[in-house]
Design goal:
The chain has 684 residues and is of the alpha+beta class. It is built from 23 helices and 19 strands. InterPro entries: Beta-lactam/transpept-like, Glyco_trans_51, Glycosyltr_51/Transpeptidase, Lysozyme-like_dom_sf, PBP_transglycosylase, PCN-bd_Tpept.
């Protein structure tokens, strides 16, 4: 059967109409999708342009002490602060039609697909500057379809909400130039030792070629390949109309002088302190790692560069270079809690373990001031007496405990509390601890900011529970300021990349100790530097007393494995710990003197330009002169008199009579001698 004439034509028309209809529907849907995407981009608004930037740390005097770049260096500069040649070079080689497309270069995409198909592998990229910026700014580098879709959406958001100048500026500040350097400003400084606005055509064309493959085209990796890439960049600039062929050839021939400062390994400033600052940023202020490392923050710290240098210098000079002993130091202003110097070890390159804030070691007798403060609150006074003799204590559970004094020296007589703290008598301390109740010392230590776990045992009075250096210095700072609570302050202020202050340190004043008892404790702690308490023994600070030029309160502490010295003037408190990391015993006498020597030299040099200040008595105390040997009111007959402070109403009212008989006999002998002489003169 034959077809009806014209039926083939009608069928063709039918297919054409269907094709047109479907095309119109698809076009409408495509247009609707594009409109919806653009509307969504507008509705979501402009994405933030907070690109990764280097966070900079400043000392208390405004000097830069470091950058938190995780091995990466980033700075943000505007297009106006970049040389035009670096802008032209980048656009020419990366995205010649940047100012003409809307985020995607369709022709480049098609060409890249064809090239990849021919080569049967990915050989050509088609990402525009906007796409690369979106990737650098917001996304991870995982190669998934979800990531590619996110990249496309971010690209549209950037194009819809920002100008081409904004996008180009962001891109130039985020691209990677190798060797941990991000952004054109950092690259200019790193490779040529100058700012981005000073780059020449030759330098700019070299830099613009690096991002294609930083580990391949860096002149510091292979200068021959880098020069070949530079030639391609210059030719791209010629093809784009930015420069002439003659200018390109001249720029290529111009010798490049590279900056080699990056090869000089500079000793970091206060590296342990900077680690502590980063820890505070994470834990106290709550910033995430990305913000800390690449948020472009300006972190103004409490560090005093001069004190930090003194601390490091004294540790280096005083400890034997051949010794494996470690050291930690913390110094702070007791009025504010601001940490002025911190050393966490002798060599940061060898060990980043921060012994000042991480390690817990036995404090020894440096724990005793907390005990004696608690005792004074319970009614003890500087004149309270107990016997110092070898004593075995029987505890509630039937066990026994026998504390020993240093070198097994015991007075075998009564001594006062003032003598006990100056001589660091262990028997007196344990007796006091058991008398007032073991919980009192724990409660006092916690009030003073000790965060470590403390055991309620007799030996706690002798500092057997490990503690942190930073906590001990903070506690002494509270005693120094009259009992007001302080916490270590490492960061005074943080400013974000927009110049907005996002954090500022504040101290909430809270009286956690009785100010009168705190002052009496402080005055007791000055006793360790007294020249002599009696005829047969010297105080624990005698070895450094000759180096002291101002009033200090302090306490040393020594165990078999640890040596401490903590003390303060009204303006500064500092604590030093020395010992072996693995807890080996310190067998050499000189090793046990390191902490004291470092402390006194640090304090004296740090306060050299500061006025000499004494500790100001509080309103609730009274000072009287006593005989330090018995704690009674001193008389003219007493050979040694010491001004000692008591909480008003607890001062002694009994006068010393120990020396009156001796003085009387001496006077009678003098009188007899005088009478004999008179008789002799009369005979003549």
């Amino acid at each position: 059967m034959e077809l009806i004439p014209g039926s083939r034509f009608r069928g063709t028309v039918k297919y054409i109409r269907a094709f047109i209809f479907i095309s119109l529907i698809l076009t409408f849907l495509f247009a609707a999708c594009i409109t919806a995407i653009i509307a969504l981009a507008k509705w979501e608004g402009a994405p933030p342009l907070a690109v990764p930037q280097t966070t900079v740390f400043y000392a208390d005097d405004g000097t830069k002490i470091g950058e938190s770049d995780n091995g990466q260096t980033r700075y943000w500069v505007s297009l106006h602060d970049m040389s035009p040649v670096i802008i032209h070079a980048t656009v020419a080689v990366e995205d010649r039609k940047f100012f003409d497309h809307y985020g995607f270069d369709i022709k480049r995409i098609v060409a890249a697909i064809i090239a990849d198909i021919k080569a049967m592998q990915k050989v050509q990229g088609a990402s525009t500057i906007t796409q690369q910026y979106a990737r650098n700014l917001f996304l991870t580098l995982d190669k998934t379809w979800v990531r590619k879709l996110q990249e496309a959406l971010y690209t549209i958001r950037l194009e819809v909400n920002y100008t081409k100048q904004d996008i180009l500026e962001g891109y130039l500040n985020t691209i990677y130039y190798g060797h941990g350097v991000y952004g054109v400003e950092a690259a200019a400084r790193y490779y040529f030792g100058k700012s981005a606005n000073e780059l020449t055509l030759s330098e700019a064309s070299m830099l613009a070629g690096i991002p294609k493959g930083p580990s391949y085209y860096s002149p510091f990796v292979n200068e021959t390949r880098a020069k070949q890439r530079q030639k391609m960049v210059l030719q791209a600039m010629v093809d784009s109309g930015y420069i002439s062929q003659k200018e390109a050839e001249q720029a290529y021939r111009t010798p490049l002088v590279y900056s080699r400062h990056h090869e000089i390994v500079q000793k970091p400033i206060a590296p342990y302190f900077q680690d502590a600052v980063k820890y505070v940023l994470r834990t106290k202020i709550g910033l995430d790692e990305r913000t800390i490392e690449m948020g472009g923050l300006r972190v103004y710290t409490s560090l005093d560069p001069n004190m930090q240098a003194i601390a490091e210098q004294q540790i280096e000079q005083i400890i034997d270079p051949s010794s494996a002993i470690q050291a930690a130091l913390v110094a702070m202003d007791p009025r504010t809690g601001e940490v002025k110097a911190l050393v966490g070890g002798r060599d940061y390159e060898k060990s980043q373990y921060n012994r000042a804030i991480q390690a817990e070691r036995q404090p020894g007798s440096t724990f005793k001031p907390f005990l004696y403060y608690a005792a004074i609150k319970q009614g003890f006074t500087p004149s309270t007496e107990m016997r110092s003799e070898l004593t075995t204590f029987t505890l509630d559970d039937g066990s026994t405990y026998t504390p020993h004094n240093y070198n097994n020296y015991y007075a075998n007589d009564t001594i006062t509390l003032a003598q006990a703290i100056a001589l660091s008598d262990n028997v007196f301390a344990v007796k006091t601890h058991l008398f007032i109740g073991e919980d009192q010392l724990v409660e006092t230590a916690k009030k003073l900011g000790i965060t470590s776990k403390l055991k309620k045992v007799p030996s706690l009075a002798l500092g057997t529970s490990p503690v942190k250096v930073i906590d001990m210095v903070t506690a002494y700072g509270i005693l120094a300021n009259g009992g007001k609570k302080i916490e270590p302050v490492f960061i005074k202020k943080i400013v974000n990349y927009r110049g907005e202050t996002i954090y500022e340190a504040t101290q909430h004043e809270e009286q956690v100790l009785d100010e009168d008892a705190a002052f009496v404790t402080t005055e007791l702690m000055t006793g360790m530097f007294d020249p002599k308490l009696n005829d047969y023994t010297t105080v624990t600070g005698q070895t450094i007393a000759g180096d002291i030029t101002r009033p200090y309160a302090g306490k040393s502490g020594t165990t078999e494995t640890d040596s401490w010295m903590i003390g303060y003037a009204p303006q500064l408190v500092a604590g030093i710990w020395t010992g072996y990391d693995r807890g080996e015993k310190m067998t050499k006498p000189s090793e046990k003197q390191y902490a004291k020597k470092i402390w006194v030299q640090f304090m004296e040099k740090s306060l050299q330009k500061e006025p000499v200040k004494s500790f100001t008595p509080t309103k609730g105390v009274v000072g009287v002169y006593i005989d330090p040997d018995n704690g009674k009111l001193a008389t003219d007959a007493c050979p040694v008199k010491r001004l000692t402070y008591y909480i008003t109403g607890t001062e002694p009212n009994e006068y010393c009579t120990d020396h009156m008989q001796k003085k009387k006999k001496k006077k009678e002998h003098k009188d007899k001698s005088s009478n004999w002489l008179e008789k002799l003169f009369e005979w003549f």
